[in-house]
Design a protein that fits this description.
alpha+beta
Length: about 250
Amino acid sequence: MDFLNTDGIDDLTQYRINSRREIVSILRNVSQKKQLVRMVFNKGTEAIVTSILEIDPDSESVIIDRAPERLQNDRILASNNLSFETMLDRIRILFFAPDVESCIHDSAPAYRILLPASLVRLQRREFYRVYTPGCRAQIPIDTGRGIVNVTVPMRDLSAGGIGIVDEQMILDDMPGRIYTNCQLVLSDNQTLAVNLEVRNSLDVKLASGKYQRRLGFAFHEPKNSLLTAVQRVITKIEREQNAKATGMA
């Protein structure tokens, strides 16, 4: 469960679905409604947008569409602990697979994973996040010799907060730590002024052997105007990503 963004959710147990019949029904609905699925692989360092092609309860299989690039496919097939995220009727669905294998579906290459033993269904709207390439956060820190703005890439954005990558491990990652007067710089150079509260921290070992720190922040005492602006940004990014995934951008 390391690679999906569950920032701000202290306990996923209450959202977990263990009924096999319900899991099959949910994933089948995702497939039938042609919902896009974000698959995270390569130890959480890469992601693609794909879709569920078929659910086969008899063979305990879920068939997933293949990535277009050969080298990317090689990395996917070599990955383990893969993570999946999608939306169904505006409810966020998370599930996981220990590994993936190649298969043929309708005469075309595809992936097969085991039917998950459980999945997570998050009904609270603020848990829905969008991937934010090209966006960054500017976070002021006190060095003891003055205030310095630390610029870090944003991984994702939700109505409740952001996820960032602190490659230099410079920020205080103690849960509850509040950073004030921060700026979110979006891909179109629009900026949003926010206060951020650390909710969680995870150090991830990359394929290179280096470690990368990922922090989840909640917006601290956000004003309604900020939440409205964030929701507009999420909608815009989601439309752009969906258009790109379907070849309409």
